[in-house]
Q: What sequence folds into this?
């Protein structure tokens, strides 16, 4: 950090632009009530596996989780969007499998 003649400080370093992704399972409390603890725990494990696989695939950095929510960081908006779309696609595929199983 350096100071100019006017007394203003500035950083003599690279500035990095980051993009944040926050995820959440919509109506997760209702889903928990409908499925029960055991089945919901499996859905949550599958969800976490899918999100983490997409983060890894797109070089995203998981910063934290809380319940069913993820907070991740990316180096560009386009990579973040690709990850979000990949998560949606994989969750949709998983949901189709789950719906088929629950109809048996």
A:
């Amino acid at each position: 950090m350096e100071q100019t003649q006017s007394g203003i400080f500035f950083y003599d370093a690279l500035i990095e632009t980051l993009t944040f992704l926050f995820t959440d399972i919509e109506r997760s409390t209702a889903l928990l009530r409908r499925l029960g603890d055991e089945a919901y725990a499996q859905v949550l494990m599958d969800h976490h596996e899918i999100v983490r696989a997409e983060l890894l695939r797109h070089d995203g950095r998981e910063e934290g989780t809380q319940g069913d929510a993820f907070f991740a960081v990316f180096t560009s908006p386009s990579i973040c969007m690709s990850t979000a779309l990949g998560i949606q696609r994989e969750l949709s595929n998983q949901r189709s499998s789950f719906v088929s199983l629950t109809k048996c």
